[in-house]
Write a structure and sequence with these properties.
single chain, 113 residues, mainly beta, seven-stranded mixed sheet, 11 strands, globular
Length: 113
C-alpha cells in the first residue's frame, strides 16, 4: 500500500491550499479515508474523514477545529483523496498525512505564517 500526499506549502493566514493523496496497492473505492496532521511538538490529530459509500450516500466528518473551513473529498476513478483548506490559520501549521489505518503516507508540510 502506498499513499502519496502533495499540495502543501507556505501561505499566509486566510489563504487556501488543496492537498491531494494518491493511493495505490488498495482498492481505494472500498475504504474509508482520513486526513490527520501533526503540529510541531504535538501528537497526531485527526482532521477529517470520508466514507467509502457511493457519492449519494457518502459522509464526511471534521474535527471541530477545521469544521466550516476544510472540505474532504475523493475521486475514486483517480484513486485520489483531497483536502480543500480555506481560511487557513497559524494553528493549522503541521505535516498533513493521508491515512487508511494502519497505512499512512509520508506527509506534506503546511506552514501558515
Amino acid at each position: 500500500v502506498q499513499l502519496v500526499e502533495s499540495g502543501g506549502g507556505s501561505v499566509q493566514p486566510g489563504e487556501s491550499l488543496r492537498l491531494s493523496c494518491v493511493a495505490s496497492g488498495i482498492t481505494f473505492s472500498r475504504h474509508d479515508m482520513s486526513w490527520v496532521r501533526q503540529a510541531p511538538g504535538k501528537e497526531v490529530e485527526w482532521v477529517a474523514g470520508i466514507t467509502s459509500l457511493p457519492s449519494l450516500f457518502r459522509a464526511a466528518s471534521y474535527a471541530d477545529s477545521v469544521k466550516g473551513r476544510f472540505t474532504i473529498s475523493r475521486d475514486n476513478a483517480k484513486n485520489t483523496l483531497y483536502l480543500q483548506m480555506n481560511s487557513l490559520k497559524t494553528d493549522d501549521t503541521g505535516v498533513y498525512y493521508c491515512e487508511r489505518t494502519p497505512y499512512r503516507g509520508q506527509g506534506t508540510q503546511v506552514t501558515v505564517s
